[in-house]
Every structure is written in structure tokens, then in C-alpha cells.
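Continuing the series of single-chain predictions for the mutant panel. This is the parent chain; the variants come on the following pages.
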Amino acid sequence: MRVRTKICGITRLEDVNSVVSLGADAIGFVFYPPSPRAVTPEQAKILLHAVPAYVQTVGLFVNASLEDILSTLAKAPVDILQFHGDESAQECAQIAKHVQRRWYKAIQMKPNLDIIAEIERYQDAGASAILLDAWHPELKGGTGHSFDWSTFPKLSIPLILAGGLNPQNIQQAIKQTQPFAVDVSGGVEVAKGIKDHQQIKMFMQGVHCGSAK
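Parent structure:
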């Protein structure tokens, strides 16, 4: 089965067009104001109009309230919720049920974390997937760092690999972890929130080569 690709932290219309033309499966919008890649719901609404059918859109939220998520979705109705903060499994499930969206949880690979038990908590609550990212004591994603890929588990729930991916390492990352999907942001940028067409093209080529048997 081929590895899916999400390009996250999209802020410009030309980057939407580039990602779509190069064959990404999903586009991520960051609704977390402290992030340098954050967009407002109004900005995301404009970008969403350029996303064609069969390309999924994901909204990244960090410890957002139900009210904030409802307000965002009213203007920018993304397809899927990505919870990237300290949300419990129950909180994720309750919010997703209320807004009628599929969801998945990002988990940072913190040292000494029982990753299997942590994944199972969210899986049991109804997560469609789990994203595994590098741990940072302060940042919620977008660190540019990778984690030890040898710790990447093999489970029944779809697992998304993130953290420090770029055109140079993506092929090896896929061969080593065999994820359901990969998620990249800073690894295909020339500046925070500014994607580079050539780097995205090289990244997608690496995904295809890494997926090949």
C-alpha cells in the first residue's frame, strides 16, 4: 500500500496549487496563533476554495476550546481535525462528535512514554489515525527535529510519521518505519510558512521511491 502525504502549514494560495499539482493527499492548516505558520479562519476560507475534490483538508488545533473550533469551522470547514496539544482522548472524542468530524491525535515521542498504551487510549476513543512527532519541552510540532525511527511501533491503527522530514531523508524514513502516511512542514520551506515548489517535488519523489517494493 502506498504511503500517503500531507503537507502542513500552508499559508499561501500558490502553495495550495503547488501541493495539489504535485500529488499530495492532504493539506494542513494551522489554527494555533503562536505558530509562525498560523492562518486565521478567514485566510483559510480563501485557501480552501482552491482545494479540489479528493484532496483532504486538515485543521491543526492546540488545546482549543469547542467554541473556538466551532467558530473556525463555520468559516473554514476543513475535513479532519488534528489535535496537537494536551487534549485527552475523551476531549478529542467529545469535540469531534459535536462538530461531526473525523479526527486524529498527534503524540510527541517523549522519553519514557509508554507509546503503545498512549496510542491505544486514543484509538479506543475513536481516532482515525495517530501522528507520531518529535518531542520538545515547549514547542507543539514544527520543531524540525526527528525522533529515533527504530522506536516507531507497528500497530493496526494508521500511523503518521512526522518530525524533521525533508527531501533528503524521507526515502530512508519510510523504508525504516513503513508508516501509513507522512507529514511535512518545515522540511519543504524556504522560510516559515513559505513552501518551495522544488523541495515539495523532491519530497514527493522520495515518498514514491520509499514506498516502492
